[in-house]
Hints:
By secondary structure, the protein is mostly helical. The chain has helices at residues 28-38, 43-66, 101-117, 132-142, 148-164, 179-190, 195-215, 244-252, 261-271, 275-279, 310-319, 333-348, and strands at residues 3-5, 8-10, 69-75, 81-89, 92-98, 286-287, 292-295, 304-307.
Amino acid sequence: MPEWSNGAVSKTVVPSREPRVRIPLSPPFIYIKQCIILSRLSEQDSRFILFFQYVSKLDEGLERMANGVSIKQRKKKGGETVWGLRVRRKGHFHSDTFLTKTAAVKAGNKIAAQMDDGTYVRKGAISDQITLAQALDKFLNELPIETERQRTYKGDKASHATQIKKFKFAKLPLTLIRKSHIRDFREKRKNDCSPNTVNNNLNTISKIFSHAIDEWDILTKNPVKGVKKVEKPLPRNRRLEEGEEETILREARKRTKQPWFAPLIEFLLATGMRLGEVSYISPDQVFLEKRQVYLEKTKTDYPRHVPLPERAAAILEEFKPLWGKERVFHVTSNTASSAWLEFKSDLQK
């Protein structure tokens, strides 16, 4: 009510206030800290700084959402505060939980970059850091060796792997190998070996990538696909000319430290059988009366009886006193193959 004093009317004057601006703020404990700092500033400066912080956080959140990275704070049942990370980008999805926001942001940026580069590997997959050399070893260890065909296949792949691992790109992770590496490998190998060997090496690399994608869940592409193979030469049509067989056998008999070598070469010439098949023949698989041998280990994995020409039976009969206990010609296919390659090299000198 108005107060009367000396006939004059007076009233309590309430100072006018500027309209308040409602600004969404951070969690309470952060707000209290901000108030302590801003209490020393003017009211107008305080509002401007708070509004600027709010817009900055909003822009940061929108940028993360636009990049497919979402980070949210939540509490577990036990009351522990954690940060949930979700990354959805280019057909990939990744989720994880971290104890700190800093760790979640760092992981989110890294995973988003991997998804962009095509090097992202989902959980449960083999490490994206496995190199081609390591993948070759892992692939070879997984190959079965129950049959002769499987053993031969593994031996061939092991030989290719030895050559491939000599190149620098074999030390790179599978996810970082590109077509340019494959083309460079092809051109360098062309100078050292035959077109068939180069193509077999490329087939081995391609097999490794296909196996890694299908069996190890590595999200990468096969860089061998689309790379041109080396043109194959015309198939060989070579036959022994007159006098060459006699020369071969004469030189083979000179290898007295390997008494099994000359009979083996002569037996191969008489039968046309494979070196790997002949080297596995045991004494109980030879039937001289019937002029037959029983091949248990063959390239096709199917055992078979092979009739022997008269000349082949005579070779075995003559060599019988020197038969080995486990193998007629004493040696394994690898030893026989090495001896043949050395012999062939000596003949060409």
